Input
Amino acid sequence: MQHILTVFCLILLLGSPTRGEDLYARFFLDKTLRVDLYHSGTKGLESFSLDRSLLEGAWPGSRVNLIDTMNLGEYQVRVYDRVTGLLLYSRGYSTIFNEWQTTDEAAAGVQQTFSETVRCPLPRRAIQLTIARRQRNMTFRELYSIIIDPADPTQICKELHKPPHKVRGLMENGPPAEKVDIVIIGDGYGLEDQQKFHEDARHFNRVLFETHPFSARKDDFNVWTVAVESPESGIDVPDKDVWKANALGCMYNTFGSPRYVLTTENGALRDAAASAPYDFICILVNDTRYGGGGIYNLYATTYTSEQNEDQKWQMDYVYVHEFGHSFGGLGDEYYSSSTAYNEFYPEGVEPWEPNVTALLDKANLKWANLLTEGVPIPTPWEKSAYDSLEAIRATLDRLAPDYYEKRAPLHSKAMEILRTSEYAGMVGAFEGAGYVAEGLYRPAVNCRMFSLSLADFDPVCSAAIERMIDFYSR
Output
């Protein structure tokens, strides 16, 4: 009899929370739980350990869409109720660590540790937080688990940390819980650069929302700026032996790539970001070298000063392109530029990114619903002619003073090939994507994720972006 009563009470406790807001009200408080982790390992090996758990301000995310339905990212954080085992919250994301695992350094057995953060609404009672990683068959396998009990005074630091950064609402369209919230943060902006930071933020925000499909969904976003003052102007440029005391630690030469800009100072970044409600982070770096970076559900970076007046459009390209990575989970569609990655996309494995496919099953192409009728799969395009131009461009020194002068005719011819291609403007499966020339395919002959140009996002990328907007704002 006692056993029956226990089961009956458990059924009553669980109920049937069919709506996300019911789940939120029942299990969460209107605060944010931030969990900082150490992610360590080398190629083929990894482990997690807890750094700290702390309390942040009001939960800025959706109170309706708590369980991730995007199926994007290399990792997924999951939060379960400790008593019932009910899944309360999940989010997919990717990391600097998983990119580093594909480098020569990791292949040589070097061990590295990176700081990472996962966030969720503050639970009312004990939770089990787990981290899972995607396997070759695209399913997730749990790698780490920890119990966090808000009733335990030693587990969560509840001192509300308020960094002395000035926060402004650049674009406000409604409550954070009902909008996609972007926080724009500056790195390498000294005291004398603060006006430039706000001008840069306004410029790049305008550029993003002049780009389809963001232009049609502007009302679904809030954008905040956090003015971080660095002791010095500029960021680190290791290959030029330039070292700056920049507040957030952004630097060029990530993984040995001169143009790849990331920061590994996760704590400083997250402390600054917490000054505003945010779902996604954009970092503007106060430097003149072409560069940026974007990792899904982590952040995007962009350089903000261009010495060549006629090349300023490249900064606009970078900002939107990198946000495509960090917001939409979009993969790079280009394949002719050098990277530090080895087997970033393992042969025979279908990429999780919505705009890159290994075409392992032509009958079930992931963007089949967007295919242009009558387009052959794979889709032919003028690849040989395009590759011959890219081979010449690859021999040029990007940092040389005459680089743009020498690149101009090559770039012009390459853009003409893409513009006049037989299947331009159509959706198919065009070979060449994900850093490899053969074996991976992209949806369109050209797209903001493919060429260094101000091309629009193709229909597949646009659909992925719209889906993400819907998830965070509805």
User: Anything to note?
Assistant: The chain has three domains: 16-148, 166-329, 362-451. Residues 1-18 have pLDDT under 50 and may be disordered.
